[in-house]
Amino acid sequence: MARQALAVAGAVAAVVVLDGCSNPTGRSWAITYEVSGEAGGVTVTELTYTESNDRYQDEVAERRLDGPLGLPWKDEVIVSAGRDAKVTATPSGQEVLTCRILLDGEKELGRATAAGPGQPVNCAKTTDT
Q: InterPro entries from the entry (predicted)?
């Protein structure tokens, strides 16, 4: 009887733990964001990017950094599988910005250059499931 009670308690605990996770497999991607300018001394007034708070939650949150922020800028984050990895930056002046999204710091998933001087740059890629 005690063994049955322990088995039932263990099963209930497992269900409770799995229910609290929207991504119980933890399938997520190691993403690196990079933003750079054509010249030295370039700054951005605003930079936003997405990341998952926890590899076991199937959500991404948008983070915002207010400038001036010096370039080049780089950050390594986790993004849940099937979710959008994206970074957007707005230059302080008439600079032309470029952004990249890398998988595991090596494989390029996305790259973009701003449409013109002083224009924001946006990189986005939906991660594989």
A: MmpS_C (IPR038468)
